[in-house]
């Protein structure tokens, strides 16, 4: 498997994907979207991602807009509000939100369309530096007042320990979903961050820690994954105990995801999470980031 390709064929769609077809969108919703885009002439479904009912590039004249929508009654629809709320804070790092349409049972966001490909997280990839750089930039934003959930609440189900709850607390805006398909690498070798559905405010080292699991999934050893995470200043400033504790939280989180959405990809992410926690439990060697 080539995880960096984000191959949907490796997924069990019924187990994981919410994706439907553009034809599922009611005519009244299309009409409302067209008041923003102009008459839609072409719709090109997104090749990656699976957490929206529709995600597509729509064409109207010379204009292109990236549209993602969820049925409002679905529990995941609240993530649309999260993306909308966080967008003004992160336009320097990702696409601008152009409009939001909430009508006839649908919640739809229209973003500036970006040209790019998914990041490649495999060993030796030149994208790794770019992702570490964009993560560093995100960590430097003064965005702790973004109206999104707090890390303490976000991982409450995976952690009951009050001392760990304390460790997660912070005032950094975090992306948290470092799935390689949420990083669009442009031909100018910049990375745009898309899919802020699970943006969270918390301790600054949480984002590089979330990335570690994706790096192990892409084939890195835990040590190599941590060396990449250590490119991000917040990781280097993090306490050993905080990282140890959060590796356990993420292992529980990914186990839960794999149980509830069983497919090859989530199984491998569960194994990556477990591998990282085991590595930390065995004691990270001094100088491992050198
Ligand atoms: N603004 C954008 N312009 C172009 N393509 C985008 C844009 N935003 C997202 N995409 C592409 O569409 C895919 C799905 O969008 P995403 O926001 O990740 O939704 P989800 O993962 O919830 O389905 C992304 O993985 C990316 O490949
Ligand atoms: Mg996505």
Structural overview:
With 290 residues, this protein is α+β, with helices and mostly antiparallel strands. The chain folds into 2 domains: 3-112, 2-Layer Sandwich (Phosphorylase Kinase, domain 1), CATH 3.30.200.20; 117-281, Aminoglycoside 3'-phosphotransferase, Chain: A, domain 2 (Alpha-Beta Complex), CATH 3.90.1200. 40% of the residues lie in helices and 17% in strands. It has helices spanning 13-16, 27-37, 78-90, 127-140, 151-154, 162-168, 206-217, 222-229, 233-237, 240-260, 264-281, and strands spanning 42-45, 54-60, 63-71, 97-103, 106-112, 117-118, 149-150, 172-174, 183-185, 191-193, 200-202. The chain has a 5-stranded antiparallel β-sheet with strand order 1-2-3-5-4, sandwiched between helices. Strands 6-9-10 form a 3-stranded antiparallel β-sheet, with helices on one face. Strands 7-11-8 form a 3-stranded mixed β-sheet. Helix 7 runs antiparallel to helix 8 (222-229), helix 7 (206-217) crosses helix 11 and helix 10 (240-260) runs antiparallel to helix 11 (264-281). The longest helix is centred in the C-terminal third of the chain and has 21 residues, at 240-260. The radius of gyration is 19 Å and the shape is globular. The two termini are 31 Å apart. The site of adenosine-5'-diphosphate has 19 residues, from strand 3 and strand 5.
CATH-level-2 architecture of the largest domain: Alpha-Beta Complex
**Overall structural domain count:** 2
Would you list the SSEs in sequence order as H and E? HHEEEHEEEHEHHEEEEHHHHH
Mean pLDDT: 92
The distinct bound ligands, ions and cofactors come out as: adenosine-5'-diphosphate, magnesium ion
Radius of gyration: 19 Å
Q: Summarize the amount of helix as a percent range.
A: 40-55%
């Amino acid at each position: 498997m080539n995880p960096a390709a984000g191959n949907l064929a490796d997924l069990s769609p019924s187990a994981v994907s919410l994706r439907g077809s553009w034809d599922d969108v009611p005519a009244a919703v299309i009409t409302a979207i067209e008041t923003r885009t102009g008459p839609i002439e072409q719709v090109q479904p997104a090749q990656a991602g699976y957490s929206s009912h529709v995600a597509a590039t729509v064409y109207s004249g010379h204009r292109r807009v990236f549209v993602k929508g969820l049925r409002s009654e679905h529990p995941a629809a609240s993530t649309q509000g999260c993306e909308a709320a966080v967008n003004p804070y992160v336009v320097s790092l990702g696409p601008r939100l152009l409009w939001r349409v909430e009508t006839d049972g649908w919640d739809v966001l229209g973003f500036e369309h970006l040209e790019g490909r998914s990041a490649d997280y495999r060993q030796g990839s030149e994208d790794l530096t770019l992702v570490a750089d964009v993560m560093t930039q995100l960590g430097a934003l003064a965005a702790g007042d973004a109206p999104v959930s707090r890390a303490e609440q976000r991982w409450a189900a995976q952690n009951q320990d009050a001392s760990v709850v304390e460790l997660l607390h912070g005032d950094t805006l975090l992306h948290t979903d470092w799935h390689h398909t949420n990083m669009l690498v442009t031909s100018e070798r910049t990375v745009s961050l898309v899919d802020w559905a699970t943006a969270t405010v918390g301790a600054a080292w949480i984002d590089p820690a979330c990335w570690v699991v994706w790096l192990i999934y892409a084939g890195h050893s835990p040590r190599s994954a941590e060396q990449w995470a250590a490119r991000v200043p917040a990781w280097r400033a993090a306490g050993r105990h905080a990282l140890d504790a959060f590796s356990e939280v993420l292992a529980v989180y990914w186990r839960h995801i794999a149980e509830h959405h069983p497919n090859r990809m989530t199984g491998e992410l569960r194994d990556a999470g477990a591998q990282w926690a085991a590595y930390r439990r065995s004691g990270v060697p001094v100088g491992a980031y050198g």
